[in-house]
Design brief:
Layout (H helix, E strand, L loop, with lengths): L2 H17 L7 H24 L9 E9 L4 E7 L4 H17 L8 H20 L3 H10 L1 H11 L4 H29 L6 H4 L6 H18 L8 H8 L2 H26 L1 H6 L1 H20 L4 H20 L4 H32 L10 H4 L1 H15 L5 H16 L1 H26 L6 H4 L6 H19 L2 H19 L5
Antiparallel strand pairs: 1-2
Helix pairs in contact: 1-2, 1-4, 2-3, 2-4, 3-4, 3-11, 3-15, 4-5, 4-6, 4-11, 5-7, 6-7, 7-9, 7-10, 9-11, 10-14, 11-14, 11-15, 11-22, 13-14, 13-19, 14-15, 14-18, 14-19, 15-17, 15-18, 15-21, 15-22, 17-19, 17-21, 18-19, 18-21
Length: 491
């Protein structure tokens, strides 16, 4: 068992063990077991970076075992510069989520912690899978624990939100399954994703496959207009569920574009790039305006996630290194920043039990430490230089300028809209006089909450000031991908 298998199965096995505990018995043991398992899973992923060879685009830390030999299905794992950081990000966010629920979740604690650990292992499996069927199994299996998390620990409309989340994402994935089966037969009975990259496919076939993959990945990102499940899921999900949705699960769809859509159907990707760019710009512009009128903090941050992910898909489909690398950096930075934003909303909700912006005002007067961290994350969400939120957006804008100045100008409006809706929320929630007795009674963050948010603040600042480790790791893999995508498969 290699490092990738450990990163996948250690949290899954630990989560299954936690499910065997009594519902509300041994809560302290459950919490510590979950934390130890999450930390161990994160520590296992660190050598993936420290031992990563940045000079090659080849898959590293590969594992290959027979799974269903009769149909040439293999348990094949590996990571390259495109996927390796997302394995670390998944394990890191899982640790944060376990800590965030330490005192908040008091019922069915073993099931809550177990669900998140199992979800973590499955998401790592998505980023590491090199077999098409294995990828699909992990991709779909992530729906189950998240459906349970929203449905059991969510808000008043949790059942509706859970069903909507499940049906949207499942329906999109059915077309992807058809595409995978076609590629299996076209390749002579192989689910090897890397072998699919070199299949000679006609333009008509590529177009059908491209839109089949788009159906699955666009919903997961989510792209406009199939984004409507996300605000409902975020609003109703518990804090940990919102953090994982924003920080990791949205990235599964964007990652799929780089692993499937672009390398397998490069001609169709170029042919229909205008369509993806158009949807991305609508997400940046229209969703930014929608975020401006939100009264619920979670909805506001959820819509901002759609706008920021629009930047990611824009970067991918302008087909230059700055754009693709910028999209990847944006995915990682959004994981840190959006996760932190939802945690800050969770800290307030745990005290006041309201997500409405009108329920707050003057929080800085009673929670100065918390307000300092929350405003810092808000600045990162605006794309403030020196924070993680700036780097990816800046790279995508630079890459887009090489294609079209006017496209770049339209994309850059996200910095204006982002600042508008984020600062509007910050002004009304954190600044000004104390608005009501609920705010007056607030107590500042405790040591656990402060440590949790501080670690994320360090990550956001580090990535903003020194993004070189991230860009160096992905450089060769991105360059090789773009070389591959530039070569037509049409005879």
């Amino acid at each position: 068992m290699g490092l990738l298998s450990l990163a996948i199965w250690l949290p899954i096995v630990a989560g299954a063990v936690l499910l065997a505990f009594g519902r509300d018995e041994h809560v302290k043991v459950v919490r510590w077991t979950a934390l130890v398992a999450a930390l161990a899973s994160f520590l296992v992923t660190i050598p993936l970076i420290t031992r990563f060879d940045t000079t090659t685009a080849a898959m590293q830390f590969e594992e290959n075992l027979a799974w269903i030999e009769r149909f040439n299905v293999y348990y094949r794992l590996g990571v390259d510069g495109i996927s390796v950081w997302f394995v670390l990000l998944t394990a890191f966010i899982t640790v944060i989520v376990v800590i965030s629920a330490w005192e908040v979740i008091t019922e069915r604690v073993n099931q809550y912690m177990g669900a998140f650990l199992i979800l973590s292992g499955m998401m790592v499996g998505v980023f590491a899978a090199l077999d098409g069927l294995l990828f699909f199994v992990f991709f779909e299996a992530t729906l189950i624990p998240m459906y349970i998390i929203i449905g059991m620990w969510g808000g008043p409309r949790r059942v509706y939100a859970a069903f909507k989340f499940f049906l949207y994402t499942l329906a999109g994935s059915l077309l992807m399954l058809v595409a995978l089966i076609y590629l299996y037969y076209k390749s002579g009975g192989s689910f090897d994703i890397l072998a699919w990259h070199d299949l000679p496919l006609s333009m008509d076939v590529q177009a059908l496959l491209f839109f089949a993959f788009l159906a699955a990945f666009a919903v997961k990102v989510p792209m406009w207009p199939v984004h409507t499940w996300l605000p409902d899921a975020h609003v109703e999900a518990p804090t940990g569920g919102s953090v994982v949705l924003a920080a990791i699960m949205l990235k599964l769809g964007a990652y799929g574009f780089l692993r499937f859509s672009m390398p397998i159907t490069p001609d169709a990707a170029h042919e229909y790039a205008w369509f993806i760019i158009g949807l991305s710009l609508i997400a940046v512009l229209y969703i930014g305006l929608v975020a401006l009128v939100q009264q619920d903090m979670k909805k506001l941050v959820a819509y901002s996630s759609v706008a920021h992910m629009g930047f990611v898909t824009l970067g991918f489909f302008i087909f230059n290194e700055l754009g693709v690398s910028g999209g990847l950096v944006q995915m990682i930075s959004h994981g840190f920043v959006s996760g932190a934003m939802f945690l800050c909303i969770g800290v307030l909700y745990d005290r006041v039990h309201s997500r409405e912006i009108s329920s707050y005002g003057g929080v800085v007067n009673t929670m100065p430490k918390f307000a300092a961290l929350a405003v810092f994350f808000a600045m990162a969400n605006c794309g403030l230089p020196g924070t993680a939120g700036f780097v990816g957006e800046w790279m995508v804008i630079l890459g887009t300028v090489k294609v079209s100045f006017w496209l770049a100008a339209l994309a850059a409006t996200t910095l204006i809209f982002g600042a508008a809706y984020t600062l509007w929320m910050v002004k009304r929630v954190y600044f000004g006089p104390v608005a009501n007795e609920d705010v007056r009674a607030l107590k500042d963050v405790n040591a656990r909450e402060f440590a949790m948010l501080s670690v994320l603040a360090i990550a956001v600042l580090w990535m903003g000031v020194y993004p070189k480790p991230f860009t160096d790791t992905m450089h060769v893999s991105v360059t090789e991908l773009l070389k591959h995508v530039a070569v037509s498969k049409l005879n």
